[in-house]
Specification:
Blueprint (H helix, E strand, L loop, with lengths): L8 H20 L20 H5 L4 H12 L2 E5 L5 E5 L2 H9 L5 E2 L2 H11 L10 H15 L5 H27 L4 E5 H18 L22 H11 L11 H27 L7 H7 L11 H16 L5 H14 L1 H11 L9 H6 L2 H13 L6 E5 L3 E10 L5 E7 L4 E4 L1 H5 L2 H4 L41 H18 E4 L8 E4 L6 E4 L8 E6 L1
Parallel strand pairs: 2-8
Antiparallel strand pairs: 1-2, 3-5, 4-12, 5-8, 6-7, 9-12, 10-11
Length: about 525
């Protein structure tokens, strides 16, 4: 009989005992407070953790605190644990440039990644030598599969997935007099799943054709509160993640099922592979040989396959998430949708080449990057300092004692977070209309301070530095190809009108948009051929 993950009196007792033990440990640890200002704590137990978790727009919350306390400030977490929040461009650039060497994932984050995906490229850290050699060598090993030349050759795969979706929608529309309400979010996931399957593994998952997918039944909403508690507490006491929960159980089950699928993909690739193949799966298989430049175990290879596959469905690389938001924004502002379609129809019945996608469609590029700016899939990056460091500042800050400083000494063990959503939407950086979805900003040069952000097109959506998203070009090309086909051929609107409320669905690995009132992560749109 499967174990039950219902919270019982025993769980509550364990919680109280854990709180007591954590408190005893916390009172003995050395303070790492820096003397910086910050918002007052709301709870002696949780600090500001619950305020942040329950915020409707955590990016706006961080921005408001930055305006009051300076571009770098502290917030309190569980049992008063302090965390630095970096809203200063120079400090953020330094932070990302030293990620994986000085600023590493916390034990709780690494444990969650291991539960979800196994010991993959994202998980790798550890001691200094291992961080520098294994993580970076793995990335270098996989680079050929994500080079511009490789993505250029894969562009037809992305178009094929989009055109298959277009054909499927035609069938739906023909059966309903030319207009139908379609859950577009579900279809964006299908496009991404089949694209990554064919492009990365030479395997068609059949998502567009309606084959059941492992992730379709994934619902992590059960036990969300208890899991959030374990994450909050885990920054002080990582062992708390060993407590059972429905969400952790669901993630572990997903891992087991997909491990089996990944193993089958590897066996198939080994049987039919060739030496010239530069696909992700082929490169991973080569790493299994004893004479490979970098040797990965079977477990590590399967973990990489799992990570890359789920990135196509959920996102660590932004594809389906941001495509969904782009369509939502174009339903709110039909003028943007029509302007984009006017640009796209100039290509007639032909699909743009990879070069044309990147140079001949300026408004498509603007819509894509505005969606990346306003709706990053991951709202912040949290790391812990593995050694002492000094953060330079663009703008001096004032400490609690009234001293003005232009750099910050960070001690080993300090927690730091970079609020990606805040910096992407900051009015100080992007101007007074920063919260608006306005593709035209990418065709103008009215935000000079944006150039201070060191990231792809001055955004942090793909982060920056040595851990910049490896699949960035893959994601951008797939995103553009999908939008090109579906926006050129179909018009979209909310069934309930432009003012339809959009909320967040938390029953997935990352929050996803949903139409308020709909069950689950559903974004039904009224679709018609144009």
């Amino acid at each position: 009989m499967a174990p039950s993950y219902q919270i019982s009196a025993t769980d509550i007792c364990l919680f109280l005992v854990a709180v007591f033990l954590i408190y005893k440990v916390s009172t003995n640890r050395k303070s790492i407070a820096t003397g910086l200002r910050g918002p007052p704590s709301r709870s002696w137990l949780f600090g500001l953790a619950n305020v942040i978790r329950n915020s409707e727009d955590v990016g706006l919350l961080y921005e408001q605190w930055s305006a009051e306390y300076g571009s770098v400030y502290t917030i309190s977490g569980f049992l008063g644990q302090q965390k630095l929040v970096l809203c200063d461009p120079k400090a953020v650039a330094h932070f990302y440039s030293r990620e994986a060497v000085v600023y590493v994932k916390t034990p709780i984050i690494r444990r969650i990644i291991e539960i979800m995906f196994g010991k993959n490229l994202v998980w790798v850290e550890g001691d200094l030598h291992r961080r520098q050699s294994l993580s970076f060598t793995q990335r270098k090993f996989l680079l050929p599969a994500f080079s511009n030349a490789a993505i250029r050759d894969l562009t037809h795969v992305f178009y094929d997935s989009a055109h298959r979706t277009s054909s499927a929608w035609d069938v739906i529309l023909e059966a309903s007099d030319g207009t139908s309400t379609i859950d577009v979010q579900n279809w964006m996931n299908r496009i991404s799943m089949d694209s990554i399957g064919i492009a990365g593994f030479s395997h068609d998952f059949g998502a567009i054709d309606g084959k059941p997918q492992i992730f379709d039944s994934l619902d992590l909403s059960s036990g969300a509160v208890f899991f959030a508690f374990t994450v909050i507490v885990g920054n002080v006491f990582p062992a708390v993640l060993r407590l059972p929960s429905k969400r952790k159980g669901g993630l572990a089950a997903m891992n087991r099922v997909f491990t089996s699928i990944a193993d089958q993909l590897l066996a198939k690739a080994k049987e039919h592979g060739n030496e010239e193949d530069k696909s992700v799966l082929s490169l991973l298989l080569k790493s299994e040989t004893d004479d490979a430049d970098i040797h990965m175990s079977r477990e590590e290879i399967i973990a990489q396959v799992f990570l890359l596959s789920i990135s196509g469905y959920e996102t660590t690389s932004s594809k389906p998430h941001v495509a969904q938001w782009a369509l939502i924004e174009m339903c709110k502002n039909v003028d943007i949708q029509n302007k984009l379609r006017t640009e796209l129809v100039q290509f007639g019945n032909t699909d743009p080449t990879w070069e044309q996608l990147n140079s001949s469609l300026p408004y498509l590029d603007a819509v894509v990057h505005e969606a990346l700016r306003t709706h990053p899939p991951v709202s912040e990056t949290t790391r812990v300092a593995a050694e002492d460091d000094i953060l330079p500042l663009t703008t001096p800050v004032v400490t609690k004692s009234g001293e003005t400083i232009d750099s910050i000494f960070v001690t080993k063990g300090t927690l730091l977070t970079t609020p990606i959503r805040t910096l992407n939407r900051s009015e100080e950086i992007w101007g007074p209309d920063a919260k608006e979805f306005k593709p035209e900003r990418w065709l103008e040069d009215n935000a000079p301070r944006a150039k201070e952000i060191k990231g792809h097109r001055h955004l942090l959506t793909f982060v920056n530095g040595p851990r910049t998203c490896l699949g960035k070009t893959f994601a951008l090309t797939e995103f553009k190809a999908a939008l090109f086909v579906i926006v050129k051929n179909f018009a979209f609107e909310f069934p309930g009108g432009r003012d339809t409320a959009i909320g967040k669905h938390s029953g997935s690995i990352l929050p996803r948009p949903k139409v308020v009132g709909e069950e689950g992560a559903r974004v039904p749109l009224r679709v018609r051929r144009v």
